[in-house]
What does this fold into?
Amino acid sequence: MEQYAIKGGNPLVGEVEIGGAKNAALPILAASLMTDETVHIENIPDVRDTNVLLSAMQDIGVMMKRAGRHQATINAANITTTTVVSDKLKKIRASYYLVGALLGKYKEADVVLPGGCDIGSRAIDQHIKGFEALGAKVSIEFGRIRAKAEHLVGSHIYMDVVSVGATINVMMAATLAEGKTIIENAAKEPHVVDLANFLNSMGANIRGAGTDVIRIRGVQKLHGSEYMIIPDQIEAGTFMFAAAITKGDVTVKNVITKHLESITSKLLEIGCEVKEEDDCVRVVASKPLRHTQVKTLPYPGFPTDMQPQITVALALSQGTSIVTESIFENRFKYVDELIRMGANIKVEGNVAVINGMKKYTGASISAPDLRAGAALVLAALAAEGYSTVDDIRYIERGYEDFHLKLQALGAQIDIIETERDFQKFKLKTG
Ligand code: UD1
It folds into this structure.
C-alpha cells in the first residue's frame, strides 16, 4: 500500500499555486445537472472526491467531456435515473448534494447515504428538515436517502445548527421550487457563496449568500453557464501553516486573501510574518512560535478544517496553547500520532491543551482523515529524522499533487510502496 516517506528538517521555501476549492467544486458539479443545457466548469481540483462524484454522475447518464485535468463540460439532458447507489459514492460526504440537485430538477432523488471523514457523528437532520419544509417526503431506508415531491414550494426555514451541507442542499432544491424560500441561520462559507454565484449564473435568483439569511426566488428552469471555481481556502491555509511549522518562507499563490483572514490572524498571533498581495500571501517564520488560544467556528471564524494544522504548529510553540473544537465531536484522533512524535498534548472532550516542545521526532504514523492526514505530514516535515505516513488515500481525497507541491518547496517526501522503496529513499536523502 502506498505511503509517504518523509525526511524532516528542511524549512519549506518558495512558491506554491493553489487549486480550485474542493468543497465548492463538489456542490457546483452536482448543481451542473440541474439544467438540460451545457455547463462548462473550470478550476476543478483533480482530487479523489471530485473524481468520484463526476463518475457517479456519468453512471446516471450525465455526459461529460474533460478538456484537461481541471475542466469539464457537462450536459445532463439525458439523465436515465434519479437513483444513485454506486458503492464508490458511499465514500464521499458530498454524495448528498445529488439529493438537492436531483430533487430540485426532477422532484425526486434516491441517493446512497454519505460517508466521508470519520470526525464525529455527522447528522443530516437539517437537510431533511429543509427538504420537508419545501414539500418533499423524505425517508432513510436501506442506507439510502429518498426524497420525493409532487411540487416543491418555497418556505421559511430556520436552521437549528449552522450547516454548510444543509444550506447548500436546501439552496439547490429551493432554486427550482415555486415561490420564495428564506434560509435563516445559513452557513456563510466561501463555497456557499460560490455555489450561489454559479446557480445565479445559470439563471437562479439567490440573494444574501455570505450572510446568515439567504433569499431564493424559485425559477422554472436553469440555463447553461461557464464558471470558474474559487481557490481552495483550506489548501492555501495548509501551505501557510506548512511555512510556520517548518520555519520556512512560502508564497501561496492564487488565493482570495479575504477568505484567509482568520488563518492569517492566527499566524500573526503566533509570531509569523504574513504579507498579502492581490492574489497571493507570503508567510515567513523566522522567529520562535508563540502560544495562543483558538476555537473552531463557522466562517468567518477559524475553520475546523484547519484545526489539526494549527495544533501541529502550536505543539512547537513556546508556552501553553488551547485548541477548542466546536464543530465536530471527534476531531482530535490524530493527536495520539503527534504524541508518538514527541508532542505534549492532552485532550479532554473537545479541548486540547498543548504544552509547546522544541521538535518532533520522526515516526511511522497513519492519516486518520483528510485534514489531520495533511497536518501529520507537516509535522513529519518538521521532525528530526525519517517518518512514514500511512493511509494517504485520505489525503488524496482533498489535496491535488500534495507531495509534488511540497517537493517543489524543498521537502524531502516521496510515495513509496515497499520497505525496499523506503531504503532507497533513505539512501537518496541520507
Ligand atoms: C462541510 C465540509 C467540511 C467542513 C464542514 C464544516 C464539504 C464537503 N465538507 O461539511 O470539510 O469540515 O463543512 O466547515 O463541504 N449538523 C447537524 N445536522 C445536519 C447537518 C450538520 O447537526 O443536518 C452538524 C454536524 O454534525 C456538525 C455541524 O453541524 O457538527 C457542521 O456540519 P456541516 O457544516 O453540515 O458540515 P458538512 O457540510 O458535513
The CA atoms of residues 68 and 300 lie 33 Å apart. The radius of gyration is 22 Å.
